[in-house]
Amino acid sequence: MSIYNYKYLIIGGGMTADAAVRGIREHDPNGTIGLISSEEYAPYARPPLSKSLWKGEETVEDIDLNTAEVELEMHLGQVVKKIDLAKKIVYDEKGNKYNYEKVLMATGGIPKRLPNIEEAGIIYYRTLSDYKKLKDLVNKNKTFGVIGGGFIGSEIAAAIKIYKPDSKITMIFLETGIGALIFPKKLSNFLNNYYQKKGIEIAAGEMVKSIVKQEKGYVVETKSGKKFKFDVIIAGLGINPNTELIKGTNIKIDNGIIVNKFLQTNDIDVFAAGDVAIYYNTALNKLIRVEHEDNAISMGEIAGQNMAGANLPYDHISYFYSDLFDLGYEAVGILDSNLEIVEDWKEPFEEGVIYYLKEGKIQGVLLWNVWEKTDEARGLIAKAGPFSPKNLKDRI
Predict the structure, then answer these.
(1) 172 and 117 Cβ atoms separated by less than 8 Å
(2) Under DSSP, is residue 105 helix (H, G, I), strand (E, B) or coil?
(3) I need a labelling partner for 272 at 20 to 30 A (CA). Which of 109, 129, 145, 227 fits?
(4) Residues 256, 243: contact at Cβ < 8 Å?
(5) Burial category of 225 from C-beta neighbours within 10 Å (exposed 0-12, middle 13-18, buried 19 and up)
């Protein structure tokens, strides 16, 4: 057993953790920093795992965030098992103790799993280890089942097809179309057809009932009775915030760890940021939790600065982006297909701006093949409104 003493302790090893380290150093060049991560790799950029790494635009070495260039100690491949808030001590699974003055929960999320299915070998895609494992399997196999039609499912299906054009890929998902939870119905249906033209089979409106491992590959059966055989299965079903460590403590949680505008929990020496944190967004006038890169980095940096005494409020309206074969988009704020939707197409499904409204106030903006307009979108979200289809025409 080893004992470590840090002024600042970060639990988690993702983009949020890297940004927090750098935020701390902006205000405290000398305070000791410790970082504990369950992953064996130092912090790395996550979006390339389903984008540029498959296209050959970047290598694994390129996505390293170079956290080691900042003065700190990293404890990689270590799983934190307990936190004692009163004594300010964190314990890992090997019994090592980490004393802290300020601690950041940057624990991210845990991939959602298929209910009632425990078949081994399914890749719940999220980490660099998952990428390396899947890349090897793609090189050796030909048929792939992608379960999930959302952000990860749509990206990884396109990425594999681009990387290996002769692969046979089937997407299976419960919704009527790709991205149906965030896109307007016609756009979602367009993507179904678009993916099919790219050579990907679409099984929409299907729920997986069972997965059976065979001598080679798997057989997937849906509730409607359809059966599919695959060499490899990848699931992209979203994440649940990883709050396991603080369950049973007095830290307030809901669908994540609740923080104030300075990213502190109800324990002023415990901060949270990134995928795991719920914060109040002033522009949207609501509590939100965001799972994308821009939020991870900007929130992590502010959390680090505030751990070092900066006392800065976090009010950023984050954005996210995606590449789907030859299509791409950037999105700001909240995208929810159940909101009122105003579509402003220059060319239907090729280029346009889509607004998401609630009671006349903009909640989110989808920039479909429209670039370098995220600041304009943020400006509109910050306005009180009211907005209507008429006064949003050609607004961006």
Answers:
(1) no
(2) strand
(3) 129
(4) yes
(5) exposed
Global pTM reads 0.95
- How far CA 69 is from CA of 18, 21, 317, in Å, comes to 11, 11, 29
pLDDT recorded at residue 120: 83
Q: HSE, CB side, 13 Å, CA atoms: give it for residue 238.
A: 10
Which amino acid makes up residue 58?
E
235, containing H or E segment: strand 232-235
DSSP 63: G
In sequence order, what are the residues at sequence separation of 6 or more whose Cβ sits closer than 8 angstroms to the Cβ of residue 241?
107, 108, 109, 110, 255, 256, 257, 275, 276, 289
- Pair of tokens at residue 149: 């039609």
Q: Which two tokens stand for residue 257?
A: 């760890």
Q: The sheet that has 123-124: what strands, in order across it?
A: 123-124, 232-235, 143-147, 168-173, 200-204
The DSSP H or E segment spanning 307 is helix 293-307
Using CA atoms, how far residue 334 sits from 13, 125, 352, 384, in Å, is 26, 23, 17, 16
Reported as a single tens digit per residue, the pLDDT across 324-376 is: 999 999 999 999 999 999 999 999 999 999 999 999 999 999 999 999 999 99
Question: pLDDT by residue (tens digit) across 139-149?
Answer: 999 999 999 99
SS (H, E, C) 189-234: HHHHHHHHHCCEEEEECCCEEEEEECCCCEEEEECCCCEEEECEEE
Q: What is the DSSP letter of 43?
A: P
Q: What are the structural domains of the chain? A: 3-45+63-110+239-307 (3.50.50.60), 123-235 (3.50.50.60), 326-392 (3.30.390.30)
313-346: burial string, b at 16+ Cβ within 10 Å, e else: ebebbbbbbbbbbebebbbbbbbebebebbbbee
Residue whose C-alpha is closest to residue 146's, from 204, 75, 64: 204
Check if the beta carbon of residue 170 is closer than 8 Å to that of residue 142: no
Confidence grade of residue 10 (pLDDT, cut at 50, 70, 90): very high
What does each C-alpha distance from 290 to 241, 243, 246, 247 come to in angstroms?
10, 15, 19, 21
Name the residue among 376, 304, 257, 357 with its Cα closest to residue 9: 304
* Alpha helices (runs of H) in 124-184, residue ranges in sequence order: 128-140, 151-163
